[in-house]
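User: Okay, second chain of the day. Same drill as before: sequence in, structure tokens out.
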Amino acid sequence: MKQTDVFVSIPVLEAKIATVDAEVKYAASKLEDDELQNCCNKVGLYMKSNRPYLDPDLTLPKLAQDLNVSTHHLSQVINEMHEKNFFNFINKYRVAEVKRKIQDPKYQNYSLLGIAYESGFNSKSAFNRVFKNVTGTTPSRFRDSISSS
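Assistant: Same drill. Structure tokens below.
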């Protein structure tokens, strides 16, 4: 435990390991590169136009059903193309929605928790944890930095 160098994280190495893990994980997948890209584009368009992340009960199977793709293929697209798991992928959109609403005068009278619920989060603790992980700051500090600008 005293040898802290042993526990130092190496981001480049971790990224390479994650890529290799994804390649091994989906080695048996029948999804070709062009199909993977098409599905990725389909997911991106659907996320922008339908905003399914606003549903706090959104699941991978429900999103796959809405997109008319298999859950395995959707999982592969999210993991390989976005380099995130399903929850991190959805939460990235939710955090972007929170940030947008914090800056929108229409939501000026909403509490941060109210905005979080409106953006698809279903608990205060998850919202605070995810927001800080994605942005590097707390929701209240983010709001305060916007107010002072």
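The two ends are 44 Å apart (CA to CA).

User: Thanks, on to the next one.
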